[in-house]
Amino acid sequence: MSTIPNWKAHLDYYNKLRALKFQSKQGIHIALELLESGALRSLPFDIVADYTIVVPAEAVQYFKDVKDLQFEDTEVLSADDIPPEEVALLRREQGPY
Question: Rounded to whole angstroms, how far apart are CA atoms 39 and 30?
Answer without folding.
Answer: 15
